[in-house]
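Let's do one together. I've listed all components of the complex below, 652 residues spread over four lines.
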Amino acid sequence: MEGIELTEAVKKEIKPYERGVHYYETDQMGIVHHSNYIRWFEEARSDFLEQIGMPYDKIEEEGILIPVLAVSCKYKSAIRYGDVVHIYLKVTYFNGVRFKASYQVIGKETGVLHASGESEHGFVNRDMIPLRMKKEYPKMYELLAAYVEEEVLDRKKTPNTRS
Amino acid sequence: MEGIELTEAVKKEIKPYERGVHYYETDQMGIVHHSNYIRWFEEARSDFLEQIGMPYDKIEEEGILIPVLAVSCKYKSAIRYGDVVHIYLKVTYFNGVRFKASYQVIGKETGVLHASGESEHGFVNRDMIPLRMKKEYPKMYELLAAYVEEEVLDRKKTPNTRS
Amino acid sequence: MEGIELTEAVKKEIKPYERGVHYYETDQMGIVHHSNYIRWFEEARSDFLEQIGMPYDKIEEEGILIPVLAVSCKYKSAIRYGDVVHIYLKVTYFNGVRFKASYQVIGKETGVLHASGESEHGFVNRDMIPLRMKKEYPKMYELLAAYVEEEVLDRKKTPNTRS
Amino acid sequence: MEGIELTEAVKKEIKPYERGVHYYETDQMGIVHHSNYIRWFEEARSDFLEQIGMPYDKIEEEGILIPVLAVSCKYKSAIRYGDVVHIYLKVTYFNGVRFKASYQVIGKETGVLHASGESEHGFVNRDMIPLRMKKEYPKMYELLAAYVEEEVLDRKKTPNTRS
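Okay, and this is what the predicted structure of the assembly comes out as:
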């Protein structure tokens, strides 16, 4: 990302990612298949990265890959064809080597919490060698770091037990 | 399932679910996209249910749906086109209302642990009303109960804190 | 559709369906997997139906299903992550029992023709019994009929009337 | 493929590709979503290439990519969860630069023709430059050429108008 123009590392207001349902995402239970939420989380990450000024295609062009290390989702209320949801993403952890994001999938009209989830990611180069962002991509590090906030939804205690 | 012939509730040896990679499951990182593991877990569940004598299409014909309540996956080592994996499923919890399964995705030839995960499920009728399997489908309850084992992989302590 | 308010059967200007690429839609060739174009065609149909005032979820609520009878796609130029395309849909045939649509997938910025395709559809009720739209759903018939245009693309005469 | 051992260019009997339905492949119409047939065709191609001794992962390792140039499918009879189908693939055209395959999707137990389709492919290197197989990969050329048969299903006349 050092080769492209980054906005200054000031936290902007992030809009939730809006998503309708594609017919092919439903299953014969008449609801969105659970695996698609994991894909929607990825879409929300892409949208977030674009909103903060470092779209993922540009990140990959810089030679940085951000593989998924872990993912989880809790399904609260089914989503159906015709529904529109907002996905709220928060960066809940970032230490320059890994980051975690949380997701809340909420009905646009209804305000219903359909699902919540988390994902964890590393930064690697094309040879899958881990990158230390602070040292190797300091601007990107600063930018992403500006968005870290402690996840407080659905929880009472500090979630990050990693160090 | 009460309408179909079930095998007696004796625990059979379950074979792991074998799976190659479809080209369309890879992404431009050159690896199987992480969302597909969640789909493979579902395939492994279907295979397990078929092995124990109650295939999921027959379960649905009985009017029982088994929606996913939660799912998680930890990715340890990428899977590539040409790889073949074995997915080991264990039923780690079942109380007649919910059950949990764990998954280990292991290279068929290599023995490498590619990923591990969990899923949690309920039993509902077509109106999405929860079912109490012990009372309403006692044979199916007994059969599934025979396969519950405590998950010990990747953990030091008893995982199930639900009651 | 007869139960919902339809706009009058006047042909409105239809905007192309705009679509970015999701990472999970790429394959290890580094391009959007060809099967996804078929899904994008479906998205473009949904978008078209919504633009003309009869969204597909409402159509299904009326008890009308529109299964796909045939689909085809010619791939001219790969689409990559980061690209944005416009899909131009035309209704090329409609006789009250079946309809056909054509699709042109064109780079939003580049104007490049990435792919063109066709699909054919019937109208059935929930028991998969064919419906005669003119008789059974006259308003919907009129509305859809207003959008039929002869397909001239991929033929000998100048197809692109776009400017 | 010249770097790997190929079987001699003698046409073996090819077994149809057997495929059950994954739950996530169904849609809310209660049938396999039409886009998945296109994916199954790809699976059938992979299976065919493996049966004739040149698995596609090995082909790609040799630096040969086989992108899809066109695909089509006609849907005759829905496929449902619990069904098992056989996909019969025939190579209907091959001139060293392009090849075409046809597919018939037939119920394993029922013999019902669920769908038929075609695909067309080129051979390119990693820079997407077309390859002339006869000259550059003569053994692979001979092997694939041995399997060409004229497609006669669903047609009265010779289909290949390309030269």
